[in-house]
Amino acid sequence: QVQxxxxxxxxxxxxxxxxxxxxxxxxxxxxxTMNWFRQAPGKEREFVAAITSSGGTTWYADSVxxxxxxxxxNSKNTVYLQMNSLKHxxxxxxxxxxxxxxxxxxxxxxxx
Length: 112
Description:
Elements: E1 3-7, E2 10-13, E3 18-25, E4 34-39, E5 46-51, E6 58-60, E7 68-73, E8 78-83, E9 92-98, E10 101-102, E11 106-111
């Protein structure tokens, strides 16, 4: 069993920044790709970003490319999502994911 615990969400004005963290436990963190997804009210959950086990390769949704950065610290079993230039449409619950496990989510609200 893997536990994923997200933190760092909150309320921020448009144009601001937040950094989300996801602490993992229960298996060898460094061996797995880690992902961030988000779900806005009334919408389906969507992919945001992913990072390979070594951190050497990352992927981003087009909607966040150039504004968000995913990173990881395998010594701390933690993956991060740095979110800059936030927009109102970034408002969502953000989830950490490593197949097949999900965290409980952290709310990000961007006021316009």
